[in-house]
């Protein structure tokens, strides 16, 4: 593990050299997607130049090399979250992974049963359940969010006592930065006879996550939020569930036998990987995992926490600033500056070369609860600096003077 030096780390990310509106780019939208180091770009480029072929299907050297690269990536990703390789299913992104879980679990669950979610979920962990619960005559229930941005534990206990077939929740809120006690939620779900599904898109890139210690049944995350490429995501699913639940997509590679009348399914995890996969994406994700290991997730988490504290302090000096979410959350800070619309505040940041997110953050139900149309969101990662945080505060002061 290398010593943590943000200036050394920044040299690994070519995009950070760009100028935006004549200013050095300050990229503070890491909850949406992250930038890519040279090692990830090189790994993908090398794959396409040297080993590109379809996997699992060719009786020739190039195909075997491509298959080896893909399966090595699966092993590397599995070890990163404490899973077995056969429990790792590659998907397009966390959204597809959660759609997969919603589809197969709702199809297998009794009609009239319920699904438990929370009010702080991303649309990716609401809409798939709405679609599949409606199709299978099931009901949705939601754990309430308290005014301080944390979940109501009493609701968790009450709703689990009603025996939902699954409890699907975010590990870290992409809006509030709230870090939920996933291990406790999974234990309570298991005790109630419910499956536990964790949206870990905002946790796996930033903190140590071990699926065995958590004892979740499903866990989803995206490569592009952890220095990897777009178009590759991961679903952890316990092997016994892969054996029992129905497939999600049909086609090549997910089958053992096909006749004109019926088909039989391939062994896990291939049962859930239909068609040609994003092999280069898996290779890039594996390189991202190696990079994060080298820096150290503990170092990353500590760096983000420090930046979040500095950000709150700097923004607090601005008249009318309101924060959304707990003070001791993740490296995600959601805020508004008085009555200034988040989009206008975001444009002031953009003029100074600062990229923040302004909008509903794919969490419209939560925005309604917060009684705001949108918020500004600054989200930090390993390559961000205190100087960038100070630049953001200066930009927000300009917005307050001009529009406040």
Detailed description of the structure:
The protein has 2 domains: 6-30 and 296-403, Aspartate Aminotransferase, domain 1; 41-293, Type I PLP-dependent aspartate aminotransferase-like (Major domain) (Aspartate Aminotransferase, domain 2, 3-Layer(aba) Sandwich), CATH 3.40.640.10. The chain contains 14 helices and 17 strands. The strands form 5 sheets. The protein has a 7-stranded mixed β-sheet, sandwiched between helices. Strands 13-14-17-16 form a 4-stranded antiparallel β-sheet. It has 404 residues and is α/β, with parallel strands linked by helices. The protein is globular, with a radius of gyration of 22 Å.
CATH class of the largest domain: Alpha Beta
Number of helices: 14
Give the averaged pLDDT, no decimals.
Answer: 97
Provide the domain count: 2
Based on CA inertia axes, which overall geometry fits? Answer: globular
- Secondary structure: number of strands: 17
Could you list the spans in which at least 5 consecutive residues all have pLDDT below 50?
none
Short characterization:
The protein is of the alpha/beta class and 404 residues long. The chain has helices spanning 6-10, 38-50, 61-80, 94-108, 127-135, 153-161, 182-191, 211-214, 239-244, 279-295, 297-316, 342-351, 364-370, 386-403, and strands at residues 19-20, 23-24, 26-27, 88-91, 114-118, 139-143, 166-170, 195-199, 218-222, 233-237, 255-258, 263-265, 321-324, 332-337, 354-355, 357-359, 375-379. The chain contains 14 helices and 17 strands.
């Amino acid at each position: 593990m290398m010593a943590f030096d943000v200036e050394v780390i920044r040299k690994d990310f070519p995009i950070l050299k760009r100028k935006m509106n004549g200013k050095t780019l300050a990229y503070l939208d890491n909850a949406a997607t992250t930038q890519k180091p040279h090692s990830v770009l090189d790994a993908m480029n090398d794959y396409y130049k040297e080993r590109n072929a379809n996997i699992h299907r060719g009786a020739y050297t190039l195909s075997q090399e491509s298959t080896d690269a893909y399966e090595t990536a699966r092993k590397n990703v599995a070890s990163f979250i404490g899973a077995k390789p056969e429990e790792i299913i590659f998907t397009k992104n966390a959204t597809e992974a959660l759609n997969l879980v919603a589809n197969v679990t709702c199809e297998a669950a009794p009609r009239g049963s319920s699904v438990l979610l929370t009010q702080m979920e991303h649309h990716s962990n609401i809409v798939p359940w709405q679609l599949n619960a409606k199709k299978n005559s099931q009901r949705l229930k939601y754990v309430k969010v308290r005014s301080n941005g944390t979940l109501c534990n009493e609701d968790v206990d009450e709703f689990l006592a009603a025996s939902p077939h699954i409890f699907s929740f975010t590990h870290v809120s992409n809006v509030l930065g709230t870090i939920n006690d996933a291990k406790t939620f999974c234990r309570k779900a298991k005790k109630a006879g419910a499956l536990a599904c964790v949206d870990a898109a905002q946790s796996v890139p930033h903190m140590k996550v071990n699926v065995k210690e958590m004892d979740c049944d499903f866990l989803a995350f995206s490569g592009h939020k952890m220095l990897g490429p777009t178009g590759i995501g991961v679903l952890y699913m316990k092997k016994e569930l892969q054996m029992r639940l129905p497939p999600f997509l049909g086609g090549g590679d997910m089958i053992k036998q096909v006749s004109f009348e019926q088909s039989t399914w391939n062994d896990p995890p291939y049962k859930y990987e239909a068609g040609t996969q994003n092999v280069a994406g898996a290779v890039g994700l594996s390189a991202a995992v190696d990079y994060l290991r080298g820096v150290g997730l503990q170092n990353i988490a500590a760096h983000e926490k420090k930046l979040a504290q500095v950000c709150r302090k700097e923004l607090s000096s601005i008249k009318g600033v309101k924060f959304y979410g707990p003070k001791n959350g993740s490296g995600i800070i959601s805020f508004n500056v008085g009555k200034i619309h988040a989009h206008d505040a975001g444009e002031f940041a953009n003029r100074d070369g600062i990229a923040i997110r302004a909008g509903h953050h794919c969490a419209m139900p939560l925005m309604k609860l917060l009684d705001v149309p949108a918020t500004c969101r600054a989200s930090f990662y390993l390559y961000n600096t205190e100087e960038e945080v100070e630049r953001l505060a200066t930009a927000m002061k300009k917005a307050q003077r001009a529009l406040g």
